[in-house]
Amino acid sequence: MTVKAHIIYLCNHKSVSMKKIFLLSISVIVIQACTNNSNKGAKRMALEKKVDSLNAFVQKMKPGLGELMTNIQLHHEKLWFSGTNLNWKLADFEIGEIQETVEQAKQIEADRPETKDLVMLEAPLKTVSEAIENKDVEKFKLGYANLTSTCNSCHQLNHFEFNVIKTPTAPPVTDQEFEAKVNSEGSLK
Predict the structure, then answer these.
(1) Alpha-carbon gap, residue 106 to 119, rounded angstroms
(2) Who contacts 148 (Cβ-Cβ below 8 Å, separation ≥6)?
(3) pLDDT of residue 30
(4) Which three-class secondary structure state does DSSP give residue 146?
(5) Would you tell me how many other CB atoms lie within 10 Å of the CB of residue 149?
(6) How far apart, in whole angstroms, are the C-alpha atoms of residue 154 and residue 176?
(7) C-beta separation of 76 from 148 below 8 A
(8) CA distance 163 to 67
(9) Chain centroid to CA 36: how far?
(10) What domains sit in the chain, N to C, each tagged with a CATH number?
(11) What pTM did the predictor assign?
């Protein structure tokens, strides 16, 4: 007989007092509440275990600072070839990729002391961005040289002086066109 059926049975018998029925009803409510709480506790523990598992997975999958810097280096090289070839749309894209990756490094590797120094890249990145916006190749080259020098200063400051960045002499990839496209009138697209 279920608890509910038992209470109904007791209510139909005049020999059982209302006080006993009330106490029994309260007992049932308390037992159900405890059962619900233990179910919630089990569900909560299962969710916490899942969150811990997902956090561990994310920690394994997130790129390290070295991978992020390699990504910046690739875009730094592509930036040079796009800017010196007057491909301003590509140069703008590449400078955006560098800025995005710098921000990712600040967020993902926030506990690394090196990321605190990434702020030093802001002024050189802005100078290069302005040169791109103004389509000024000479200002671009000067800004790029300053950006490269700032990268090396950051490396030295953080004891990575062995990692020296320079102006590239060959494209980092051979399957991408860096030259600007010219329209039928002979002007850049």
Answers:
(1) 9
(2) 76, 165, 166, 167
(3) 63
(4) helix
(5) 12
(6) 29
(7) yes
(8) 14
(9) 38
(10) 3-61 (no CATH), 65-157 (1.20.120)
(11) 0.71
Calpha distance 159→140 (Å, rounded) = 29
Residues 6+ apart with CB under 8 A from 84: 137, 140, 141
Residues in the chain, overall count:
189
Query: For residues 181 and 166, what is the distance between their CA atoms, to the nearest angstrom?
Result: 27
Q: Which two tokens stand for residue 92?
A: 């703008």
Q: What is the pLDDT of residues 57-70, one digit of tens each?
A: 777 888 899 999 99
Cα three-residue angle 148-151-156, rounded to 5 degrees: 130
Q: Which two tokens stand for residue 59?
A: 């920690």
Q: How far apart are CA 36 and CA 184, in angstroms?
A: 75
- CA distances for 68 relative to 83, 101, 106, 182, angstroms: 22, 7, 10, 34
Does 139 score more than 60 pLDDT?
A: yes
Distance (Å) of CA 49 to CA 22, 35, 37, 56: 40, 21, 18, 11
Dihedrals φ, ψ of 80, to 5°?
A: -60, -50
